[in-house]
């Protein structure tokens, strides 16, 4: 039983990290119909930036905020210089964002080092609570809480604020929003920056969770995020949340009970969803 | 002609080896171009087929011994497996928008990479294993000619393929999917067919690749292999088989050259950055690549000459060039 609870917490924490990556991806896709293959690169930059800032400032909060700022800045540059010229052309978008991924993860090796870096858990969040015989690792609970907060915040902004209204309207009908006198390009940039910032936040949170970061981690997690987005349905935030939790849980349980199948499990999940409902659990269109 | 005479002139084994690799990567890039350039589908897992071809040769040579018969059988097995794999992935994802194929191929190739790393009893993981090759192709010059002949054959074969009615339909799909569908073509079948042809050809190149190295490890399944194909095709020119060959030569030469430069400044060790930036610029500014851009310049020049200025003709030309990768 204790083992099961541990696996549950583990799976939820991984799920939340994947969710942070996937939510930006799906938000950007929903509004701009751009599938950002460079998203994993932003995630890795968030991780490196977070570890570096934590080392420099010694404050974990500053590290998280700094990572988000780095992510948003990179997102801004990416949207302006790389994505803007290829709006509406899917093949070019896919190709060019992959190029960005390549450059971003190689730049990591130049700016920091090609070798993996160690990442520490801040003292306040290290250690664990013991309730009876159940051991709850603090940092994992922290990740779950942050993930839930981000989910609620995104939902709240989308549902309750004017910006959210515009974004949701933009998802439905871009031309109409533009015709109503709203500068949709600015909204695009904003959403892209938020998505990039969330990815960087996910990276910064992941670093102490896994203890070590390396430049290829972006691609690894990007694959997970893609699986999540496909399972949840492209453009659906609730779908991403549900799928991320599914992927996280299946990952942690399979790694314990059937270690050979841990990655294959996610793929299997995706294949089943694609066969039954190609548009994903919450997807409206294929 | 120069290429045929070359082995008898040069003594440099490494140069010969590099040319052999260029031929092999040209085959790989051409197979990728069938997908990207002629059908307009983006795959990020083309290394799967390369790796399947590579491992079927490696494992077969290791288990059954080095004989021509078993080598040919291994290449055939690689092709069949690749065809099956591309059929499955294609059927799962090609019904959907282009994003899905890109994501799914990425995920599948990730899965295969993990599988190859874990299945150590057969693949020996990342350490890989060396194996014997049949007597006949131990000679580098013979291998050089084999690679050259196969490249030419693949070029002719694929050129034939794209001019068949099926190939024409594929190009119609690239230009306008909806319209092709409304003409009554079942586009999914055509797309799957294209991915099978590409998969089989890529498998062949993978088989040849490990023959030159006499060694195979899991890097054949890595993202870098897919990136190779992508860079070569994009920089050389999508939608032109010659472009894939030129792209392969440029990337391989530049790779060698930049690795040499790493002696002077460590930044050149990160040569992928240069390729990545070049790649982004090419996608943004010259979506037709080197060959495509030169070709359109040439057409413009020829068109402009006889009738002085013909703005309508020029604009349709540039439009069709822009469309080379324009598929939504």
Describe the structure.
The complex is a heterodimer of chains A (286) and B (328). Chain A has 286 residues and is mainly alpha-helical. Chain A has one domain (2-217). Chain A has eleven helices and four strands. In chain A, the strands form two sheets. A two-stranded antiparallel ribbon of chain A has the order 1-4. In chain A, α2 (39-57) packs antiparallel against α3 (60-83), α2 packs parallel to α4 (90-111) and α10 (237-257) packs across α11 (262-276). The longest helix of chain A is centred in the first third of the chain and has 31 residues, at 2-32. The termini of chain A are far apart. The mean pLDDT of chain A is 86. With 328 residues, chain B is mostly helical. Chain B has one domain (2-327): ABC transporter involved in vitamin B12 uptake, BtuC (Orthogonal Bundle), CATH 1.10.3470. In chain B, 76% of the residues lie in helices and 1% in strands. Chain B is built from 15 helices and two strands. In chain B, strands 1-2 form a two-stranded antiparallel sheet. The longest helix of chain B is centred in the first third of the chain and has 27 residues, at 13-39. The model of chain B is unreliable at 308-328 (pLDDT under 50). The chains are: A mainly alpha (286), B mainly alpha (328). The interface between A and B is large, with 43 and 43 residues.
Give the topology:
The complex is a heterodimer of chains A (286) and B (328).
Chain A: H1 2-32, H2 39-57, H3 60-83, H4 90-111, E1 117-118, E2 128-131, E3 134-137, H5 138-160, H6 162-172, H7 174-179, H8 184-210, E4 212-213, H9 217-232, H10 237-257, H11 262-276
Antiparallel strand pairs in A: 1-4, 2-3
Helix pairs in contact in A: 1-5, 1-8, 1-9, 1-10, 2-3, 2-4, 2-8, 2-9, 3-8, 5-6, 9-10, 9-11, 10-11
Chain B: H1 2-9, H2 13-39, H3 47-64, H4 68-93, H5 98-118, H6 120-123, E1 129-130, H7 140-163, H8 165-175, H9 177-182, H10 187-213, E2 215-216, H11 223-236, H12 241-261, H13 271-285, H14 289-304, H15 311-322
Helix pairs in contact in B: 2-7, 2-10, 2-11, 2-12, 3-4, 3-10, 4-10, 7-10, 8-10, 11-12, 11-14, 12-14, 14-15
GO molecular function, one term (chain A): transmembrane transporter activity
Pfam families (chain A): BPD_transp_2
Protein name (chain A): Branched-chain amino acid ABC transporter permease
């Amino acid at each position: 039983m204790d083992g099961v609870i541990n696996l549950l917490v583990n799976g939820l924490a991984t799920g939340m990290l994947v969710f942070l990556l996937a939510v930006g991806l799906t938000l950007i896709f929903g509004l701009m119909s751009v599938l950002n293959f460079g998203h994993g690169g932003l995630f890795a930059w968030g991780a490196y930036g977070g570890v570096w800032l934590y080392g420099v400032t010694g404050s974990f909060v500053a590290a998280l905020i700094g990572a988000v700022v780095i992510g948003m800045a990179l997102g801004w540059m990416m949207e302006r210089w790389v994505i803007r010229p290829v709006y509406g052309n899917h093949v070019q978008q896919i190709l060019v964002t992959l190029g960005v991924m390549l450059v971003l993860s190689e730049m990591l090796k130049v700016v920091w080092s090609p070798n993996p870096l160690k990442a520490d858990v801040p003292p306040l969040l290290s250690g664990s609570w013991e309730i009876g015989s159940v051991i709850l690792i603090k940092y994992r609970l922290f990740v779950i809480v942050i993930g839930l907060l981000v989910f609620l915040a995104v939902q709240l902004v989308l549902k309750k604020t004017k910006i959210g209204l515009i974004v949701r309207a933009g998802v439905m009908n871009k031309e109409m929003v533009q015709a109503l006198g709203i500068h949709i390009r600015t909204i695009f940039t904003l959403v892209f920056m938020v998505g990039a910032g969330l990815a960087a936040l996910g990276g910064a949170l992941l670093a102490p969770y896994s203890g070590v970061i390396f430049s290829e981690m972006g691609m690894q997690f990007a694959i997970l995020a893609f699986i999540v987005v496909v399972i949840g349905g492209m453009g659906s935030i609730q779908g991403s949340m549900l799928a991320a939790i599914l992927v996280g849980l299946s990952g942690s349980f399979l790694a314990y009970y059937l270690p050979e199948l841990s990655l294959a499990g996610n793929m299997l999940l995706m294949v089943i969803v694609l066969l039954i409902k190609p548009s994903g659990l919450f997807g409206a269109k294929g | 002609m120069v290429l045929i005479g070359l082995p008898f002139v040069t003594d440099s084994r490494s140069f010969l080896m590099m040319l052999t690799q260029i031929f092999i990567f040209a085959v790989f890039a051409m197979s990728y171009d069938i997908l990207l350039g002629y059908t307009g589908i983006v795959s990020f897992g083309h290394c799967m087929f390369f790796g399947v071809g590579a491992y079927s040769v490696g494992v077969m040579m290791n288990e059954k011994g080095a004989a021509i018969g078993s080598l040919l059988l291994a290449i055939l097995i690689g092709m069949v497996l690749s065809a099956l794999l591309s059929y499955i992935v294609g059927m799962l994802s090609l019904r959907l928008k282009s994003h899905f194929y890109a994501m799914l191929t990425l995920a599948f190739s990730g899965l295969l990479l993990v599988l190859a790393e874990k299945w150590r009893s057969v693949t020996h993981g990342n350490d890989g294993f060396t194996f014997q090759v049949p007597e006949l192709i131990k000679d580098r010059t013979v291998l050089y000619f084999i690679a050259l002949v196969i490249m030419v054959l693949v070029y002719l074969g694929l050129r034939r393929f794209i001019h068949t009615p099926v190939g024409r339909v594929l190009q119609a799909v690239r230009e306008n999917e909806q319209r092709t569908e409304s003409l009554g073509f079942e586009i999914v079948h055509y797309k799957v067919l294209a991915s099978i042809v590409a998969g089989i050809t890529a498998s062949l190149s993978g088989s040849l690749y490990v023959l030159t190295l006499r060694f195979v490890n899991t890097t054949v399944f890595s993202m870098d292999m897919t990136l190779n194909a992508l860079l070569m095709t994009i920089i050389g020119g999508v939608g032109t088989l010659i472009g894939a060959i030129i792209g392969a030569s440029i990337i391989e030469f530049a790779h060698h050259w930049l690795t040499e430069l790493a002696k002077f400044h460590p930044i050149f060790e990160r040569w992928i950055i240069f390729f990545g930036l070049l790649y982004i610029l090419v996608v943004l500014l010259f979506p037709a690549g080197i060959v495509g851009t030169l070709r359109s310049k040439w057409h413009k020049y020829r068109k402009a000459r006889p009738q002085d200025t013909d703005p309508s003709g020029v604009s349709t030309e540039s439009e069709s060039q822009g469309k080379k990768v324009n598929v939504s």
